[in-house]
Amino acid sequence: MNKSVDVVSVVGARPQFVKLAPIARAFTSSGLKHSVVHTGQHYDEKMSDSFFKEFGIPEPDVNLGIGSSSHGVQTGAMLAELDGIFEQISPKSVLVYGDTNSTAAAALSAAKMGIPVLHLEAGLRSFNRGMPEELNRIVTDHLSDVCLAPSQEAVKNLATEGLKDRTCYVGDVMVDVCYQTRDSLEETGLNGFLNSEYYLSTIHRPDNTDSAQRLESVISALAGLEHPVVLAAHPRLVAKAASFSVSLDREGIHLVDPLSYREIVAGALGSRGVITDSGGLQKEAYLLGVPCTTIRPETEWVETLDSGWNVLCNDVGLLRDVAYRDSPLHDTLKFPYGRGDASENVAQVILDFLSNN
Ligand code: UD1
User: Fold this and answer.
1) 180-213 confidence digits (pLDDT tens)
2) What 3-state class would DSSP assign to 244?
3) pLDDT tens digits for range 74-122
4) Is the CB of residue 296 below 6 angstroms from any atom belonging to ligand 1?
5) Is 236 in the pocket of ligand 1 (CB under 6 A)?
6) Of 52, 283, 295, 322, which alpha carbon lies 20 to 30 A from 34's?
7) Contacting residues for 201 by C-beta, under 8 A, at least 6 apart
8) What CA–CA distances, in Å, run from 214 to 130, 207, 244, 296, 338?
9) Atom of ligand 1 nearest to the CA of 41
């Protein structure tokens, strides 16, 4: 293994592969020596390998193959493996992404080994400590040497927690990848894969999937909307629905496998609205100028709520009316997450950090 690696990216779950794509390109352009460790948290072809192919990301240097289990077992298995991997690679820094168990495990392992930790998407808060992701975010930010914030709101949250000196606003790398994908779809003449009146939906949060009653009410609400719903099913949703005998096969719901990134962007652009509990998709809808309805009591992407582009609707009895609303005017869209240069900013911050440490 190369002893002069500048930065090791640790990824493991679907949204992290999407963020890795522009980062890997920016690191190559800026001359940073980069290795990728995949924890194996996501392992299905459509949750993992397909994204490496779609974005042309080089194969991970290491795949730990951890897979699914309870939070403690999964995180612990990652920790046990990562110590040895970091010792072998001996990188100058470790970059962790977002808020998954892979993020928290890599930050903890690296910090305890004295390797500087850089956190991409730092400072987001839902202020809901019942979410595993909220705990992962808090732990990771406080373990990090550099908190790479995607928005001014995130900068503010980090300052409130005493982390101002370690914070750098870089913008959001999801903007880079979302705009590049939208533009490439426009070039191929493909924007909107059904071109009709439908909603695009994803549901995967434990709060919505892990109780039979809640899952039944969410799925019934989707099936009862004014327009058909294209439901791109995360494996957790399929597994939980099967275990609770909640049918996903209903009139009004068109069930499809997890979509590629191009399909998600095309699907959102062609829809009359997005209905989701995903953080990434809420933001993508905003960037693409598509109204979003979020089936959660709160969001960490608070800027998307401005002008009604994103509306929180945890009471699914109201979903039909909330989702049916008119789209806000496009000139109310702002640029709170930067304009698509976040990955270059991240590369520059890391170059500066490494030359000063
Ligand atoms: C994880 C992240 C979440 C992120 C999501 C993106 C944590 C705590 N949560 O949630 O923040 O929004 O990824 O998708 O890290 N499964 C498969 N195949 C796979 C992966 C998962 O079948 O390739 C199934 C298994 O039944 C597994 C379940 O999905 O138990 C949940 O997977 P897990 O990685 O624990 O969390 P996610 O719900 O995917």
Assistant:
1) 999 998 776 555 455 568 999 999 999 999 999 9
2) helix
3) 999 999 999 999 999 999 999 999 999 999 999 999 999 999 999 999 9
4) no
5) yes
6) 283
7) 222, 229, 230, 231, 232, 274, 275, 276
8) 16, 8, 11, 12, 36
9) 34
